[in-house]
Specification:
By secondary structure, the protein is α+β, with helices and mostly antiparallel strands. The chain folds into 2 domains: 39 residues, no CATH class; 71 residues, CPE0013-like (CPE0013-like fold), CATH 3.10.530. Helices cover 20% and strands 28% of the residues. The protein is built from 3 helices and 10 strands. The longest helix has 12 residues. The termini are far apart.
């Protein structure tokens, strides 16, 4: 039996999941799905940064569009460490498409405008 706290909604139900994947303690179906997924294929959102070529904005924040398999997080971080941004970026732009063949895109969570960084208007 594994104990966990559901993170799907603000209620934070205290779940118990047995070896047969029977979930108790959930107040909604989403909690049951979370408990089963956490036992069989845990996933996590990844938030990180990538390097840029610009001294005024040396890092650009990124996140995964959807959750990645938990066991691949550190490998994904290594992939992101090799990325260097050298162009304008808008929030939501894909920085890495289909990272590690997971079907998950890494997207920008902030803007980067080369013209603004160089003291010119957009």
């Amino acid at each position: 039996m594994k104990e966990m706290t559901c993170i799907v909604c603000p209620v934070g139900c205290h779940l118990s999941v047995d070896d047969a994947l029977k979930v108790t303690g959930n107040r909604c179906p989403r909690g049951e799905r979370y408990g089963i997924d956490e036992m069989t294929q845990p996933k996590r959102m990844l938030t990180s940064t990538v390097r840029t070529l610009f001294s005024h904005h040396p890092r650009l924040s990124v996140k995964s569009r959807t959750a990645l398999p938990k066991g691949m997080i550190f490998e994904a971080i290594s992939v992101l460490d090799s990325i260097i941004i050298d162009k304008n970026v808008k929030i939501g732009d894909v920085i890495v498409s289909n990272i590690m063949n997971t079907g998950v895109d890494m997207i920008a969570t902030s803007e980067l405008s080369i013209d603004t960084l160089n003291g010119r208007s957009k």
